[in-house]
Design brief:
- By secondary structure, the chain is an alpha+beta fold.
- About 50% of the residues lie in helices and about 10% in strands.
- A four-stranded mixed β-sheet has the order 2-1-4-5, with no helix packed on it. The protein has a four-stranded antiparallel β-sheet with strand order 6-7-3-8, covered by helices on one side.
- The longest helix is centred in the C-terminal third of the chain and has 21 residues.
- The protein starts with a helix and ends in an 18-residue tail after the last helix.
């Protein structure tokens, strides 16, 4: 059964329900399926009437619930979800609906904060107000299915039912096919350099509703507030703030240009046997051999897009001779200890990622020194579960080595945690604290543990 047939089948099933009996998520799902099917069936079709769908009650309510689930920090207005709940969600959404309907809605400035990067640097993160997040999420609900119909299968980042796990499996498949020459590319400040004029050209391939395009322009040109100072604004011609709800979708829409070029079945790169795998602004090229001329073409296309590859951080490697990292994983061609002269592709969290989870656990334990055992477990489990869910790759068992190392660290660290108190000894002083926390309080046991990831995560 084709994708279109499956979508049509789901549309028929949802449409069989009376509208008054459908929940807001079901109504949103039906709308998205119809938009996706239209875009998939007619590759050159342009959508002229989309803006009116932004302020449908079920769209705004679904958008609000999605934002609340993520429970991010407040923006420049300092308004939290608790404030909105106290004010009244219905009243809040009706006011936003009226602003969108009358086209009096104006986004507020984005608060910029700096978060630590793995390499020791800082990454700028933009935090819109909750009202702006809800409006952007409503826009994403409408736009995403249209562009999903066009996106290339080589793209895995910030897309429904796609993840880093899928990208890792695709890399593994290519390595097994002999595509062991890898170009690991690093785009320089991609989110800050997306040119607005060229992005709008790409958006107009599908969207002809000037009201929606104007709304997107407003989000792109909104001022940035950092340390109380305003920067950027209407004169800004490039960039989309990291942290904005709509930003990952816009980033994917623009990078889809490169996806189409490299993975075009009749194009130059496919004839050279080159395949690209991309996750947001991170991508690698894989082939049996990659000529310098092919890399020059990639640089040329990106330059025409207004983007730049960081040459110092990008590298061309032979995967059979040296390891390479991608999305927090390390890929190595290792000798087998079971088969004489045998080798296999080892895929595991890179050392920095393993060190980072240990540091995170250590910092957390230092901040909860006097918590009771159930609270200690409640604080640690989300950290352990999140890290394992990211690195637990279906049909890739080598990550179990990293999970075993994490468990050994937890055993040693929990023993020190409970033995360090000399004045007020814990009930687990001198005991096997890790085992007790696992067996009696439900602490996650990393090694040889299954069922952390939902069943449908890889569909």
């Amino acid at each position: 059964m084709s994708i279109q047939e499956r979508v049509q089948q789901e549309i028929t099933k949802l449409s069989s329900n009376k509208r008054r009996d459908m929940s807001p998520p079901e109504r949103v799902r039906l709308l998205q399926l119809k938009l996706y099917l239209k875009a998939k069936q007619e590759r050159s079709y342009k959508f002229y009437v989309l803006y009116d769908k932004l302020f449908l009650d079920h769209v705004l309510l679904t958008a609000y619930r999605h934002c609340k689930k993520k429970n991010g920090a407040p923006g420049v207005d300092k308004r939290t979800f608790e404030d909105i709940e106290q004010y009244g969600v219905v009243k809040f959404l009706q006011e936003l609906k009226e602003e969108l309907r009358t086209r009096t809605y104006r986004p507020q400035a984005v608060k910029r904060v700096l978060i630590d990067k793995e390499n020791g640097g800082k990454r700028p993160l933009g935090i819109p107000t909750i009202k702006d997040r809800v409006a952007q999420q409503a826009c994403k609900i409408i736009m995403e299915p249209i562009f999903e119909a066009d996106f290339n299968n080589s793209s895995y980042g910030f897309r429904p039912k796609r993840s880093a796990a899928g990208a890792v499996r695709a890399i593994r498949q290519n390595l097994k096919k002999g595509k062991c020459t890898v170009y690991d590319a690093d785009l320089s400040k991609y989110f800050d350099k997306i040119p607005h004029d060229k992005l709008e050209i790409v958006l107009k391939e599908r969207i002809a509703d000037s009201r929606l395009l104007k709304l997107i322009r407003q989000w792109l040109k909104v001022p940035i507030v950092e340390d109380g100072k305003y920067t950027r604004g209407k004169s800004n011609t490039s960039g989309t703030p990291q942290g904005g709800v709509i930003s990952p979708l816009l980033a994917n829409v623009y990078m889809n240009i490169l996806d189409r070029i490299v993975n075009n079945p009749q194009g130059y790169f496919q004839k050279q046997g080159i395949h690209m795998i991309r996750y947001a602004d991170d991508f690698i090229l894989m082939s049996k051999t990659i000529q310098v001329s092919s890399l020059n073409k990639i640089h040329e296309y990106l330059s025409r897009m207004g983007l730049l590859i960081n040459v110092e951080k990008s590298k061309l490697v032979n995967g059979k001779e040296e390891s390479f990292d991608f999305l927090g994983f390390r890929f190595r061609y290792k000798r087998s200890v079971i088969k004489p002269n045998g080798r296999y592709w080892d895929i595991e969290p890179k050392p920095k990622s393993q060190q980072k989870i240990r540091q995170k656990i250590s910092y957390k334990l230092k901040s909860i020194g006097h918590y009771a055992a159930p609270k200690v477990v409640a604080e640690l489990n989300p950290i352990i579960r999140g890290w394992m869910n990211y690195y637990k790759i279906e049909k890739v068992s080598y990550t179990q080595v990293a999970f075993r190392n994490l468990e050994e660290y937890l055993r040693e660290r929990m023993t020190r945690f409970y033995n360090r108190k000399s004045q007020r000894k814990s009930s687990m002083y001198g005991k096997r604290a890790f085992n007790i926390l696992v067996e009696e309080y439900g602490l996650i046991k990393p090694y040889r543990t299954s069922g952390l990831r939902p069943v449908n995560a890889f569909r």
